[in-house]
Each structure stands twice: as structure tokens, then as C-alpha cells.
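The aim of this short unit is practical: by the end, you should be able to scan a pair of folded records and say something sensible about each. We start with the first protein, listed as its amino acid sequence and then its C-alpha cells.
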Amino acid sequence: MPFLAQAQISPFCIVSDTHVGAEDSVYGDFIKVVEEKNIKTIIHVGDAIHIPGSIKQWRKFLQITGSDKKLHLAPGNHDIKDKRSLEIFLRFFPDLYHSFSHEDTLFIILNTESPEEPGMIAGEQLQWLKNELERPFRYKFVFLHRPLFPIFSGRGLDRFKDARDELHRLFVKKGVSLVVSGHDHLYNRSLKDGIVYIIAAGGGGQSHFPAFNDARYYFRYITGKRKNGGYSFVVKDLQGDIGDEFNIPLSSE
């Protein structure tokens, strides 16, 4: 069953689309940066590996990550594609979606890759999500693979616009502050009805995006930490150059 557990998480890193197993994956370089910063919590918004159902790639991904870190993974379409890859995913990760909390903040990890409902948050998961969002936390952060509002139209939850719009309205009504996704392999930040929507950049498998075919130059990761009662987020590349900064709440200095 999905769980709600207390965790010490600040500072933490957010990463996406690492495609471990692809020749151009830079996940190992990212982990070196995480270890240099002594960050122990990683939130991954999907496409951790390159070939769905590859036990070898899952083992390599977890080996690179290291056993000393707390990993929260929202599965992507390269992690779960069909029933077989779903079964293999569950060998390594017991829950398809879950939540955890720290102090006044609820972190919700969703699954957009159900073989029965791909590209949607529906059924039992949607009801679970509604129940979780009733919890009285000051900050509510949501992480999922496919964006509600993708850079490339039709690749995200916008395939089912009515369901997407219903999900967005739920987030607005229940006070979600931040929604982070991946899938598009490019970084983007937008603001919709008071919610910060982030699309995290990819770190591998860039051959699927010919215009952006070198992961070293397009990889970005996000660090989050507590600041002045809220959160400060910084987006960097592997060279340490800052590409974006923002705060939650937006007025935080």
C-alpha cells in the first residue's frame, strides 16, 4: 500500500530522465555532484532507465545511486511500458505511488504510467490523491513524470485534456504549491493559478530528441532546501552554472 512516512530531506535534489543504460546517460556524474554536496534525498521524476523491464539496467541504476541515499521515484514511460515491465518495476520499488512528509510539507509521488490508464491519474490512484490532499500541510508538492502542460503538445497529460484540467483544478483547490515533471528533456518553469509547474531537463536518452543530442549540455538538476520558513530552489548544470532560481512561496526572499 502507498505509505506516508516521516523523513529528513532538506536539502534534496530533483532529477529526471536519466536513462541509465543509454550511452549518453550522465546519471553517474550527477550522483558525484550529489555526494560532493552531501545530499541524501533524491526525488526522481521518471525514466530512470532506458529499456523498460531491463533488470540489468535497474540494478545499474540502483548501484550508481548508492545505498546511502533515500530515493523517491515517480515512474516514467521507460520505467513502465507494459505488464512485464510493471512487474519488474515492482520488484525494485514496492509502491507505484506514495507520499512522505517533513515538518509542514507533504511530498506526493504519482504514477502516470499505468498500463491500464497511461497518461492519466485516474481510478484508485486519483481517489488516493484526493484523500492525501485533504491533509493539513502548509506546503504540498507533487511529482510525476508526464507534464500537465508539456513543452511538446500531446506528449503529457494534455492527451486527455478534460482529465488534465480536472487534476489542475484539484491542485488549485487543495493548495498545491509546486508540481514537478519530466519527459520533455528540457527545463521549463511556468505559473498557472498560483501553482509553480516545473519540467525538469533530461540527463540521457537525448538521441530521441535530435536537436538536443548531447546530455552534458542539456542536463539540469534542481536542489531544494528550507529557507525563511519556505523553500529555495536552484537549477544547475553539471558545471555548477545556475540556470534558474525560485522560491516557494513565491514571495520568499
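Turning to the second protein, read its sequence before its C-alpha cells, just as you did above.
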Amino acid sequence: MIIKAITFDFWSTLYHFKQSARSLRAEYLRGVLLATGHRDIKGEQVAGAAKKAWEAWNSIWQGEQRTPQASEWLGFFLVHAGAALPEIVAHQVAVGLEEIGVSAALPVDGVAEVLPRLASRYKLGLISDTGVEPGRVLRSLLERDGLLSRFSHITFSDELGRSKPHPNAFLATLTGLQVAPGEAVHVGDLRRTDVAGARGVGMHTVRYAGVHDDRKPEYPEAEVVIRSYAELESWIEEWGRGD
């Protein structure tokens, strides 16, 4: 096969958290509620409301194939916490939620070394479901770490309006890279979104299990499973030789 492009997922593929972003958000939200008159709010109430908010978020993510933004997630949280915030405060808190995990996010081992080498030989793309952190914030992480310029095309779900495994998430990226599906490899950690979505449009697939090993048998497996970026380079080279 001739490989011309490689696309990547973001979370648990290129980046991971050195500490729990959900814990950071819970601490932040409890502080906000205490400061806005909700004096009786307990840590367990915040944790329970956050769990319910994520359940609502996941239902939309999977059912509608779109990623609710931080303001929507905050709305779910406040309902389950039995709390209310003035509109201007809620907007400020949503922005805070978008950015709070930035300091805890780091590139996965090997990414900073491997991406420049791959970018010198292939077109690189990024296909990311954004979660609470929007594309704007993820771009800032890539720029902070000197990786943004390595990508020829980036597709974030909050900007596209669709999340993986919707075909548009992959096809928009392939169009931007000007390659056919069979000329591209997608690297991601989730079988339901990354593997099934990429396979659905005819791309080759690699599952990166170095951070999160998704073994859900109800979803398809990738052609190759790797645990390090050194393995990725080896496989891409082998495919490029036509083996």
C-alpha cells in the first residue's frame, strides 16, 4: 500500500493528563459554588452532579455524534447540583472549565520526537472529539509544545459540528489533506470512535494502547495495536514498502 497521510486522535493518543482533569474541575466548581452563596454544597454533591453531567454529555456524544461544549456541560451540572448562577458568571465559569485542564495536559511519551520525523515524510492530520476543552484550547496546547505546525489539517468536533465515528469527521480531514482514504492511516485509542469510524470510510487503522487500552469486544479492532510511537514508525515504514 502507498501511505501518504497519517491522522491522529488527540486525547490518550497524542496527549494525556498528568493528574485528573475531572478532579480539577470538581474542585474548581465547588469553589465557585461556595463563592456564589451555595454554602452547604459538599464535595460528594459536586462529584455526583459532575457524574450525572458526564452521563448526559456521553448520551449526546454517542447518540447525536456531536460533542456538547463546556456551557452545555455546566448546565447539566447545575441542574443536578440544584444550583444556579447568574448568566455572566456562568459564562465565566464555562470558560474556566475549558481552560482548567491545560496545565495538567502533556504530550504522550515519544510524540514530540516522532511527529517531526513523520511530518517530513507524510501529511499529518488531527481528528479530535474535543470534550469540555474546545479546539481553541487544544490548538494552544499544540502551539505551546511546538507541534501545531506539524499538522497540515486539523478537524475539531466542536468546529465541525460532528464527532467520531461520523464519516464527516474523517472525510473532512481527508479532503483537507487531499488524499484518498486508502492512502491514509488513522491512529487513535478508542475502538468505537477511532477504529470503527476510520474503517467505515476506508482508512487503515492503528490503535494506540499506551495510555488507554480499549478492549471493548463489541467494536472492531484495528489492523495494528501499538504501545509506543517507535512501533508506529516501524509499521508505517513496513506498509510503505508494500508488505
